[in-house]
Amino acid sequence: MTHKLIPRYSTGQAALRIEEIQNHLADGRPISELVLTEPAGAVPNPTGGEAASSGELGTWRHGVLSLLHELPTGSKSDNDIHGIQLGKALSSVIDPSPSDAASDGAWSFLALSLFPDVVLARWPAHPITHELSRDRWIGRQAGRDRNYLKLAWRRWQVLGPVMEAATAKLGEDEFGALLERSAVARNVRLVQVAAKEIIAFSDDG
Known about the structure:
Radius of gyration: 17 Å
Number of strands: 0
Distance between the termini: 43 Å
Number of helices: 11
Helix content: 55-70%
Strand content: under 5%
């Protein structure tokens, strides 16, 4: 497959964009008005290949949303399933190149511009201050490496085969325990074996 490059936000661009989103939500306006299928100043890797066009960005958005099937969020179970399906959709529809997958700017563009409604459904604004979690919306550029789209995609890349076959799904906390320790996360086979053991565990706790 020929990868199309994802536009990337700089740290400054991401900071300005999340402020724009927060102000928009504080005014009571719908998040759908902030969906962008234009690069909007974001610049892809200049040496990596062909950049995704506006039309292709729109196709990505439509494809991911169609695979999410308007899944609900809110309960732990709903949130877990939402994250799993989101990772699967990002992998099958966008399939980021290795360089884009390693770029925090690419993930912040996807979260802040192409899929802000998807992120908001899982990580809504504070009901009083309207502040958004910079860790979840931007990621490492503004705090901890916890961009929601990035983590959902990464979990699917490592544990997708396990999740497809599992009746009981792993949740975000279990994924974090397996993948947030770099010494373990680098060993994909070990992570998959551990995940299978966790799923098979039938005792309480």
